[in-house]
Amino acid sequence: TQDMQGNVCVVTGAARGLGRCISETLAQAGANRVYACDIDMTPAENWLREYDNVTAVTLNVCDKTALARLNERIYSEQRRLDVLVNNAGITRDALLGSMTEADWNSVLEVNLKGVFLTTQAMLPLMQQHQSGSIISISSIVGTDGNIGQSNYAASKGGIIAMTKGWAKELARGGANIRANCIAPGFINTEMTQAVPQKVLDKLTARIPLGHLGEPADIAQGVLFLASERARYITGQVLKIDGGLVL
Ligand code: NAD
Predict the structure, then answer these.
(1) Annotated active-site positions, please?
(2) What is this structure's pTM?
């Protein structure tokens, strides 16, 4: 499909994993330009070479100065932004009794405040032409919780609540700015490779479709929500989890 033709996109946490796949999918769908942003873009050196419509940006989603610079750059290069994918995220898992305040703070800082700051910085580029699609990557942990992830669950649940507010706030005055979340289940990436095999096996047994998801399964959901095909969808959470949470 060429669903992204004419569109300018920003993806955070884009160097590897889901963010990489999302960036590639938007680029392959004909996006005019994808700004692929990550705190560390070095893992992206190889795949970036395959695209002439992807620009690498080293950016920490918690750094307001860097975000303001990105806004200025996109304004001067494109005059607009159509799609923002808030994908950057981290985990610092521990059971409630042993989770440190530092674990809590760093996860909330990147996963929740980072989404707030990035969206705030990019919004004027959408408001300018009164349209856009904001897609934030939450998690089924943000809707249903998980053992050892108090910080992560709170951050991902916060993203959902914030998104529903944005769906209302950003559509005022006839603006066509939509905001949605994707809640992935367990997807095959570096993040889940850190999970012990024994835990993964147990988990897989609980997934109706019988296997972990692939990054492309998430990227196709992002492409849909980003495109005109989803023009009447806002404030929603799309679970992509092989039926795990039912
Ligand atoms: P990953 O760890 O492979 O990739 C995350 C990327 O984000 C990395 O490249 C990292 O450098 C970048 N990043 C981290 N902190 C950053 C910051 N402050 N600023 C900018 N970039 C930063 O993870 P993934 O599996 O690809 O996950 C991507 C998103 O999907 C995350 O938000 C994660 O919580 C969510 N998610 C993943 C799964 C899964 O099963 N993999 C499930 C549910 C939700």
Answers:
(1) 152
(2) 0.98
